[in-house]
Design brief:
Helices cover about 70% and strands about 0% of the residues. It has four helices and no strands. The N and C termini lie far apart (about 70 Å). Bound molecules: fe (ii) ion (2 copies). One fe (ii) ion binds next to helix 1 and helix 2.
Amino acid sequence: MEASAPSKGIFDSAHLEEREHVVELLCKAYWMEIETVMSYMAASVNLDGVRAQEIKESLDEDIDEELGHAKQFAQRIKELYGVVPGSEGFSAEQSFLQPPDEQTDIVHVIRGVIKAETGAIEHYTRLIEETESVDPVTQDMTIAILRDEQGHRRLFEGFLREYEVEGVV
Ligand SMILES: [Fe+2]
Ligand SMILES: [Fe+2]
């Protein structure tokens, strides 16, 4: 009896379809991070007022983290023989994170951030589920990123809570 060749996992030619699917999911994740960088950058600069400072600083820190996530997703796309998409492939989805009418409207931004983080959490949870026993390396990377997003969301839920307690919203 001939021994079968060792499995190459996600790189196995028999798993081409799965690999292409993972690349698709990674491209969506990549665009989500890029759009989040754009939205957080705008909000971290636009907001006005004494109380906005904490939010601005927090968003400013997040920009670097989200950019780091985008880089990781891009690198993984490459490793899976995909191509990181060019800017023409981008289409915006964060309608809820456009600048508010009043730049002192902190609650609008906090709610937008929670929504963006929730969207990321949902997509990354799907990525983790769909890479289960298919591509453990992508899964492992995404689990670490998911934890960051859960932390971001929790932080902004805390900010929102403060405004709710005060009856501002
Ligand atoms: Fe992120
Ligand atoms: Fe995040």
